[in-house]
């Protein structure tokens, strides 16, 4: 592997994403030392036991001390506060980044706390699972997934290149995007899907005419697909919706408009309209599988991939 | 296995469900002879090549001739017409069933064509994949899945028992339900999820501000989960929505009401309301996994199930 890209990497947050970065950094030999910080003593103890960080710090100041790369892996709602606390302790020439699912709010909240001489490069790896916490991470999480960087104007080219190489080393393909556009793209590819999934699961739980046991028993008819992402971390997702309000409301408006048209087609028995939509949507699935962003195995390979696909 | 349950079984339709019934009937030794019928010469040729039926008939009359059990495995929109055609050729004492995802419409459309002395037992196996056609079926499709029977009042007890055993032999657990209640349960566990999935994929395809390539590239953020069921058979799903209009519109009304409340919470920054919902929905996922209706593997086991779950 040669020289590590960053002598010392500090991860503020050691859950699914932080824990996966730690493991993938080791796998790729990308850093000589990975330090981790978690807000609770319980989580720090767990991280020490699992052992995916070289050191675990009890304070933010300690964690970022001497770090050449600091990545904030906490819910976006607390990033401003975290940045304010670590700002004075950052090493000149270091790079600060994050992994938040929204980027405009991160630029707004974190940017002002990054001192001159420290590079601030917001990032968002498009990868995850429905699990959270220090046990949820794994080194392969970013393999073949995209990582979007939304550098602010005037970002140092060399610092940017090095950070790109870091994410490539974690397994990702790196793309650059404007923060505003990122937030709009993610509103449709991630935030609206989660909102819809949370909503339908909530609707199902609240029905009086169908029992919860019936919903669970007969969920293989399609409903179960939605429950996976509706099991995602509540704090993380609350913060995403609070911090990408405009884009989510815009995309949600389009969704509701389209749904009203579908509702009308059902009410008036317009089979042609239904058939046309249902045919169009097949092509997108095929493109996603062809682009390597989902498995071609039937039923997501739930049955072990042994069935015809 | 002992005596087969039905000497001759006829499957009207040889796609995902018909083809899976044929294969599972063989596996279980449930019948001495399985005949299949498909409306197109091309599909009949394919079924003959694959060989999962003992005989393939070119006409409906031929297929049901001497059959002790006839299962209609065609989209619900054509079942009335099919029933009218086979009615005169049914063997006295035979059982006629179907596998449609709606049951009130099937009772309405098929019932009148079933002659006296023939038992009519509507059925719905809660199992499927996003694939269709004669190559899509497999013998294990019904293993561990529910099959709901919605017998009409006065159904012969012995015929009912035998048909229950047949589905148990295919791998299912059998449940009886009133047709109207079935249609409501399925509206929330299957029909609304499909409608929502079709809708969000359609919305994503129609955006001008986000390109289709971006939707595909960044689909791992959640969107891809919806594209699987949005790739389901368009004819089948058109017919389901046209034939379960009342229940789907009722459940859709609840969904839209809940979504409006969520939208309001986002607009007004009500983080507590979001957090409360997002926490509740986790429990349902856990119950579905505990009930054996979905895999516990992270990401549906897409990564081969080797990652921590």
Topology record:
The structure is a homodimer of 309-residue chains.
Chain A: E1 6-12, H1 16-28, E2 31-37, H2 41-50, E3 55-57, H3 60-64, E4 69-72, H4 79-86, E5 95-98, H5 104-110, E6 119-120, E7 123-125, E8 146-149, H6 157-169, E9 173-176, H7 179-206, H8 212-217, H9 223-229, H10 234-243, H11 245-267, H12 271-290
Parallel strand pairs in A: 1-2, 1-4, 2-3, 4-5, 5-6, 8-9
Antiparallel strand pairs in A: 7-8
Summarize the structure.
Chain A is α/β, with parallel strands linked by helices. The first copy, chain A, contains 12 helices and 9 strands. Chain A has helices at 16-28, 41-50, 60-64, 79-86, 104-110, 157-169, 179-206, 212-217, 223-229, 234-243, 245-267, 271-290, and strands at residues 6-12, 31-37, 55-57, 69-72, 95-98, 119-120, 123-125, 146-149, 173-176.
Find the CATH topology of the largest domain in chain A: Rossmann fold
The CATH class label of the largest domain in chain A is Alpha Beta
The end-to-end distance of chain A, rounded to whole angstroms, is 38 Å
Helix share bin of chain A: 40-55%
- Give the strand content of chain A: 5-15%
- Total number of distinct structural domains of chain A: 2
Q: For this structure, what is the CATH homologous superfamily of the largest domain in chain A?
A: NAD(P)-binding Rossmann-like Domain
What's the rounded overall pLDDT mean of chain A? Answer: 94
**Which class do the helix and strand fractions of chain A yield?**
alpha/beta
Tally of contiguous helical segments of chain A: 12
Per CATH, which architecture of the largest domain in chain A?
3-Layer(aba) Sandwich
Spatial sequence of strands, sheet with the most strands of chain A: 3-2-1-4-5-6
| Quaternary form | homodimer
Number of strands of chain A: 9
């Amino acid at each position: 592997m040669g020289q590590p890209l960053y002598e010392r990497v500090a991860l503020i947050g050691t859950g699914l994403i932080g824990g996966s970065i730690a493991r993938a950094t080791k796998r790729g030999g990308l850093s000589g030392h990975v330090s981790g910080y978690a807000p609770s003593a319980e989580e720090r103890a767990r991280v020490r036991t699992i052992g995916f960080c070289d050191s675990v710090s009890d304070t933010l100041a300690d964690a970022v001390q001497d770090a050449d790369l600091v990545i904030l892996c906490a819910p976006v709602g607390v990033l401003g506060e975290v940045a304010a606390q670590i700002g004075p302790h950052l090493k000149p020439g270091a790079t600060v980044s994050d992994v938040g699912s929204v980027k405009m709010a991160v630029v707004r909240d974190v940017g002002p706390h990054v001192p001159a001489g420290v590079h601030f490069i917001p990032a968002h790896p498009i990868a995850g699972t429905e699990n959270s916490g220090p046990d949820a991470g794994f080194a392969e999480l970013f393999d073949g997934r995209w990582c979007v960087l939304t550098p602010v104007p005037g970002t140092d080219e060399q610092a940017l290149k090095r950070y790109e190489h870091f994410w490539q080393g974690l397994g990702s393909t790196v793309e650059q995007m404007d923060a505003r556009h990122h937030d709009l793209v993610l509103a449709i590819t991630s935030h609206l899907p989660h909102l819809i999934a949370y909503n339908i699961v909530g609707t199902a739980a609240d029905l009086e005419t169908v029992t919860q046991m019936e919903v669970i028993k007969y969920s293989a008819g399609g409903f179960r697909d939605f429950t996976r992402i509706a099991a995602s971390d509540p704090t993380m997702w609350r913060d995403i919706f609070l911090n990408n309000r405009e884009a989510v409301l815009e995309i949600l408006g389009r969704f509701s408009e389209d749904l009203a048209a579908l509702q009308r087609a059902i009410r008036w028995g317009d089979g042609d309209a239904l058939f046309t939509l249902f045919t169009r949507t097949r092509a997108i699935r095929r493109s996603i599988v062809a682009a390597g962003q989902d498995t071609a195995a039937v039923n997501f390979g739930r049955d072990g991939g042994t069935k015809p696909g």
